[in-house]
Structures are given as structure tokens and as C-alpha cells.
Amino acid sequence: MSEALVQIGSQALQQGGVGFGANIFRARPSLIELVQTTSRAENVTPGDFRVVSTNLHLGKTIRVVLLSVPSEQREYFKEKNVFTKENKRCFSLDNIQPHSRALEPPAMFCKTCPKGDLNWSKWRITRDPNDLPPCNVFWNVLIADRKTQRPYYLNIKGKSYQPFRQAMEQGMSNLLADIFANIRAINKERGYTFVKAENRFVPTPGFVVPEGTIQKAPEPLPNIFEISFNINSKKVNYATGTAYVMEFSDFKWMDPDGRAEFGQLYLDIVANKAEVQAAATEEAEVTEAVMEAPAEVKGEVIPPSTPITI
């Protein structure tokens, strides 16, 4: 081995970073859950958020950033209150039709499924828990920890479903609207007009750049990954036991450095979207056997027909 090669290798080791950033070592999103008192997992703390694959506890409050638009998904377990991979007979990743890997799809489309939302009309009359839809809708969100920038998947189910919708339609939506209004005013002064049909700013016809100045580029539209917020664990007591639900609060627009950091993380996720989704689906299936649904969650959430707009 030549002395030059030894010197180069030594320098690399002193600087660090050998292999860092290689595709095979990049962090993929892990699944996190809000631990319930009914969890089958060992060495867990009810009320904490934890990484399912490593059992790393993140505490009762996590500050996060959305990395994609939340999606509604569904799952149907044939035997009531048995939340295992084998008992999951059908599931959908888009709330439109069953996944191709679903074991026993009751219908071709979720909208016409006898196990789904069609049951709500009967339940509204009888209020009998046995008449509730056995196929449950929930939110699947891709988030990142505000401090560590680690990406995670989180399923928001049961009584946390509706508060999340409200938080997105109010907290997130209102803040985005305020940010957009400010950006629109800035761009108007710079000579740009927002075209809603194209969702972008274009040069304003007839705008004259002040003499002796150069027209600045338009400020970009806000992105959902530029806003951070808290997800809190809240303990609720029911007649049948204790459960934990999620609360969503403290929506804030990050500083320019934070927005740039999460913008790059978003681009990395998009670049590996297929691989990320495949890994998430596989991990979710493996961990079904140790995850338990919250107590007393059915019959409390009737999903509205209008989609979330953020």
C-alpha cells in the first residue's frame, strides 16, 4: 500500500463522513404509535408516543412537520377487537377501493361496502354498538420530528380522527391563509399577480419596474412542511376503561433556516417515494400483532364527506 493512499485514508477518517449519505444508510420512515393501556407490546408506557420497531419512547408530546398531505385509509378486522395481521381481512390505502393484497374484500369499492360507512345510517337510528361499521377509517400521516428531522408514519384513529380533521381545517388552514395573504401582498408590490387556476404567480400586465431598480423574483407559495405543530397525548376515562387520544396545537411558521431544512427532507422523501411506501406497508403488517386499538373509540366519529383542504 502506498504512503499516499495511507495519507488519504487517514485524512478521510479524521474528517469523518465515510459512507455517510449513501442511499443504503438513509433513514426510512418508521411507524410510531400512541401507546394504549390495551397494548400487547412489552416494556411500553401507556400515553407515550413510541417508535414501534425500536420501542424508542418519544414522550407525551411530539413537535412535528407534515411531509405530505394526510390520506384517509381503512381497515377491516373480521373478529371484533382482535387487531392482528391474520384477522385483518381487508384494507384500503386510499379509502376508495380495497388494496390488491387484501385477503377478503367485501366489495369492489369502499363506498358500496356493507362493512363500511353504509352502516352509519342504521347506527344513527339504533345507537347499538353492534351496528357500527366494522371497517374503520383513519388518517395516515407522514411526519418528521421538528428537532431530529427523523421521518415517521403515524395512524390517527378513533376519537383522534375528528380532532385531527378540525386541526387541519382550522389551525393549519388558517395559518396557511395568513401566510399566503402576506406573500400575495409582497408579490403585488413586486409586480406579480396570483392566478388561482394555475396556482402560481405571474407577471402583472402593465406593471412598470421603478426606474433604477431590478424586479425581484416572486416569493414562493407556502408549503405544509414549513409549519410545525404539537401532537399531545391526552388521557380520557370511559365507563369501560382508560384510553389516550391525540390533541393538535401550536401551529407556527418556521424560520427560513427551518423551512429550508425540511424542504430538502421533503425532496428526499419524494425522490424515494415508492421505496418509502413499500417499507411502511411492510412494517405496518409486521407490527399489527403487537398493536392494540384504543378503547371506546367506535361510534364517536362520523367521517364528513368533504375533503381536508390545507
Strand coverage percent: 25-35%
Q: What is the total domain count?
A: 1
Average pLDDT for all residues: 84
Q: List segments where confidence is low: pLDDT < 50 over at least 5 consecutive residues.
A: 293-306
Shape: globular
**Overall strand count:** 12
Tell me what you see in this structure.
- It is a single chain.
- The protein is an alpha+beta fold and 310 residues long.
- The protein has one domain (26-103, 136-290).
- It is 26% helix and 25% strand.
- It contains five helices and twelve strands.
- It has helices spanning 3-15, 120-126, 161-190, 256-271, 273-287; strands at residues 30-34, 49-51, 57-59, 61-66, 71-77, 88-92, 135-145, 151-156, 192-195, 200-203, 227-238, 241-253.
- Strands 1, 2, 3, 4, 5, 6, 7, 8, 11 and 12 form a ten-stranded mixed sheet that branches. A two-stranded antiparallel ribbon has the order 9-10.
- A hairpin with a 4-residue loop joins strand 9 and strand 10.
- It is globular, with a radius of gyration of 24 Å.
- The N and C termini lie far apart (59 Å).
- Mean pLDDT is 84; it is low at 293-306.
